[in-house]
Amino acid sequence: MTVAVEVVDDTGLVADREIARALVEAVLDAEGVSGEVAVAFVDEAAIAELNRRYRESNDPTDVLAFDYAAEPGWPAQAGSGGVAGEVVVCPQVVIRYAGEEGRDPAAQLGWTLIHGALHLAGYDHETDRGEMREREQRLLEQFDGLVRLLSVAGGRG
Asked: What whole-number distance in Å separates Cα of residue 22 and Cα of residue 143?
C-alpha cells in the first residue's frame, strides 16, 4: 500500500514534521490503507472554528479528522480502497491535555496523531465498543520508537 502524507505546521510548535509524517504513514500502512493525507498543525482559533463548523462545538479540541473520500462530490478514485483526508491537530490543546492528564506532551501528541489517523482508517470511538481505544494502545506500543522521537514546544525538546 502507498500512503502519501504531507505535514504543514502553522504553529511552529512541532519540532520535527518528518517524525509526525512517518508516524501517520506507519499507522495507515498498519491499517492496510493507502491514499493521500494532509496533517495540519493549527492554532486554537483555527481548530475552534473548524470544531464549530463541523461538530457544532464552540470549544477548541486537540484533533479533528476529515475523510474527504466519504464526502459527496469528492473524486471517485479517492474512495477506491484508500484514504483521502486530513488530520488537523492543535498542539496548544495537546499540551494542555497532557498537563491535565500528567502526561508527557510529546507522548500525548503521538496518541493524538494515531487517533486522527485511525479515524481516517474508519474507526469511530463514539460508535464502536472500544475497538478504537484498544487499537490506539497497540499502535502506541508498536510505534513507541517514533512516538519517543516527537517533540512539541512545552514538551521534550
From this structure: 10
The three state secondary structure string of the chain is CCEEEEEEECCCCECCHHHHHHHHHHHHHHCCCEEEEEEEECCHHHHHHHHHHHHCCCCCCCEEEEEHHHCCCCCHHHHCCEEEEEEEECHHHHHHHHHHHCCCHHHHHHHHHHHHHHHHCCCCCCCCCCHHHHHHHHHHHHCHHHHHHCCECCCCC
Domain carrying residue 139: 3-145
Per residue in 18-56, pLDDT tens?
A: 999 999 999 999 998 888 999 999 999 999 999 999 989
The reply to whether 60 falls in a domain is yes
Number of domain units in the chain? 1
Please state whether beta strands 82-89 and 63-67 pair in parallel, antiparallel, or not at all (unpaired). antiparallel
CATH number of the CATH domain containing 83:
3.40.390.30
How remote is the C-alpha of 73 from its chain's centroid? Answer: 24
pTM equals 0.89
**Residue 152: inside a domain, yes or no?**
no
